[in-house]
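Methods, example record. To illustrate the input and output format used throughout this study, we show the complete record for DUF624 domain-containing protein. The sequence lines were provided to the predictor; the line carrying structure tokens was produced by it.
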Amino acid sequence: MVSSGIQRLFYVVWMIIKLNLYFVLFTLMGGVLFGAGPAFQTMTDLLMEHGIDYQQVTFKGFMSQWRKNFKRSNVHFLLFAGISFFLGYNLYLSAQIQGLLWLVIDFVLVFVLLLLTVFYLYVTQYETKYEITHFNLFKLAFVSVFLNFSAFLKVLFGLISILVLTWFFKGLLLFATFALIAVWSGFATKDNRFMVARKLAQHG
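The corresponding predicted structure is encoded as:
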């Protein structure tokens, strides 16, 4: 039992390292801006398809899926990045101004940015599972964000924990951070996604 537990831990750790290295490589191959979205989507696809079976994740397979995801995933990621940049810049400007009203605006902008991040994670999860239009994909992800507030908090708790850990151990950016985000988002949104799948099946 102990041996199998250690072996499973090794599989999980190596899968995370392997996926993260591929993510960094393919993000750079896409010039960062055009590589990150397809690379993150590909990580999500492979995790949902193969779990912790690291032997199924190969350079050739990652490249093939990355190319397949390139156009649609860049639409999702660039839209998310553009809105996030706009909100982040406005947050930066409002933070320079003192006053209760501006403090409230700061909190609202931070909350919207958090909502947008969770929304994007749902988009990547549903993109793996369903072949639907951009509009329906976004609608499904938007509804899922508000299905269960505890799930929303669970996603945020994991993300913040990963980012704080990365802040103290910068090497995780190369070996674990992005894969951990993909793994955690899949785990934390699982119940909501199953709920959505059941409702879709009932109305299908």
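Annotations derived from this record:
Residues 5-202 form one domain.
The radius of gyration is 18 Å.
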